[in-house]
Amino acid sequence: MSLSDLKHFRLIQDAHPGVLADLTPFRLSIPAGWFPLLNRLCVLLEEHSQASGKPVAKIFGVNEKGGQMKVFLSADDDDQVIRIVESLVLESTQTCRVCSAKASRSVIAGRMYVVCQVHLEAQVGVAE
Length: 128
Fold this sequence. Notes:
- The structure is a single chain.
- By secondary structure, this protein is of the alpha+beta class.
- The chain has five helices and five strands; from the N terminus they run ααβαββαββα.
- The chain has one domain.
- It has helices at 3-15, 17-20, 35-52, 79-92, 117-124, and strands spanning 28-29, 59-65, 68-73, 104-108, 111-115.
- Strands 1-2-3 form a three-stranded mixed β-sheet. It has a two-stranded antiparallel sheet with strand order 4-5.
- The longest helix is centred in the middle third of the chain and has 18 residues, at 35-52.
């Protein structure tokens, strides 16, 4: 994790201490373009907690796997929490890992990435 990413993570963590209390930088491995998704996930989980009266779900791990965000959290038995997470995971498959723009999955050097056209061209060096 770069210093810039660490600072961004700390800002999100400070804004959502209840949701991210158990998440350390060592358990966070997502690209910078997905930090806005993580922030929105925290907001949605907090809103659900307030509306339902249930304890806020705590995120204890987030990583990238197969070109999508993978989230590990408490309260995985709450159907609404599961729907919230699933919607953000789906959105991650359409969000550029670099800049947060609308994107699609691409295979680059045998690995699945989600990048916009600009970053795909920069990555492979070929305009499509």
